[in-house]
Amino acid sequence: MGWALLHEHPTGLPAGKTTPVVFQEDEDGMVTATPEYLEEFFPTLTCIDFRTTIKTSDNIDDYLVDSFQMATLVSSRGAQNAVGERGMYNAGSDSNNRVALMIFDDNTHLMGYFIGSPTNLGGGKWQMDVVNCDYDFTHLYEAELAAFEGNWEEDFSTYIPPEEIESSGAVWFLNGYNTGRGPVLREDDAQIYALWHTLHGPEPGRQCREIQRLEEFLPNEGRWMCYLLLDRDYNLLGYTMLDYQGNGG
Description:
Number of helices: 6
Radius of gyration: 18 Å
Order of helices and strands: EEHEHHEEEEEHEHHEEE
Oligomer: single chain
Shape: globular
Number of domains: 2
Helix content: 10-25%
Largest sheet: 6 strands, antiparallel
Number of strands: 12
């Protein structure tokens, strides 16, 4: 896989007072976090990031580099952020899901977070005790951007058309975001950083899925998704772009 970006000075998890936030799951067992709802508790927020996580790190930076906010900032070179984004997870099927909720009040400033398993209050209600904090991660963004620039192009230099995936030797894949607007991968697309970061992370194999499951992870209608294709030993073969029907450009 080559080099991996390491954070040599762990930040830890910032301490602070907690704000209890209760979420109501819907009829399908889904819990959704929206910026509109969280604004009731954190009026100065600009955007949020909410997702499940397999990480058990005690370093907030490890969660920030996985966030859509970081992916958007790095890929756009600071021109865009994750404003308007929301997230959800299935509380009904797995109440032990670990989640990471991060609340931002500026592009590189974290004002609150919750990492762990929400508390089941019964009746489909789930509580997250959000830690209020004051963490400027400009240094982390700048380090990620510096590592990304000049290094990502090689990973996206070999395009594999959909009809050649089967014969390419691909055994595993990594999937990007629902952010593609067409069959050509834009340089400012957030999924470029997300895929690059995962590929060069400490455990890319944990994020990979079997190539036979590719159709389970197609993008939403009207969007395109990027996929990195890897061989049996997790070596990168190339990338492809697919629409919601699994077609290429």
